[in-house]
Design goal:
CATH topology: Rossmann fold
Number of domains: 1
Radius of gyration: 17 Å
CATH architecture: 3-Layer(aba) Sandwich
Largest sheet: 2 strands, parallel
CATH superfamily: NAD(P)-binding Rossmann-like Domain
Strand content: 5-15%
Order of helices and strands: EEHEHEHHHH
Number of helices: 6
Length: about 150
């Protein structure tokens, strides 16, 4: 296992989230598009994580042991802006950080998706983190930026 120099976490990392697999979300969207009802659906996956635990799970899957530093959200945001300058992207916004820490990615309802993030990460761990695709660049060129390098 190799060490990552530092991994900053917003606040204490104890806020919860329920990530959903993109294919599960797409499948549900297609099914719901054919219905004639109007409803609000919680698009969540079958696992609930505390942010810090999710970071540690992903790190273990890619054989990296993170040196976690808990940072005030404002400080962490400024650090992500610095990283964003290097990769020509907006890594995360203040609003996204606030929503994450306010547990807006967590609800008490049945999951829409069935794919567990932990299973997906373990199956794809060797590929995680090898490439970076800028969200801003993808908006400019919606085709070539999605291709494998």
């Amino acid at each position: 296992m190799r060490y990552l120099p530092v991994f900053g976490i917003f606040g204490d990392g104890q806020y919860r989230l329920q990530p959903i697999y993109v294919d599960d979300l797409a499948e549900a969207a297609v099914l719901k598009a054919h219905e004639r009802t109007s409803e609000t659906i919680d698009a969540i996956g079958p696992e609930t994580f505390r942010y810090r635990d999710m970071v540690e799970m992903i790190a273990a899957a890619i054989s990296v042991w993170p040196n976690i530093v808990f940072l005030p959200p404002g400080v962490a945001y400024q650090m992500t802006r610095f990283v964003g300058w290097f990769v020509n992207d907006v890594v995360i916004t203040r609003e996204e950080i606030r929503g994450l820490m306010e547990e807006r990615l967590y609800v008490n309802s049945s999951p829409l998706g069935t794919t567990k993030l932990s299973n997906w990460v373990h199956a794809n761990g060797r590929q995680l983190g090898l490439r970076y695709t800028s969200e801003i660049a993808r908006r400019v060129d919606r085709v070539s930026r999605y291709r494998s390098n």
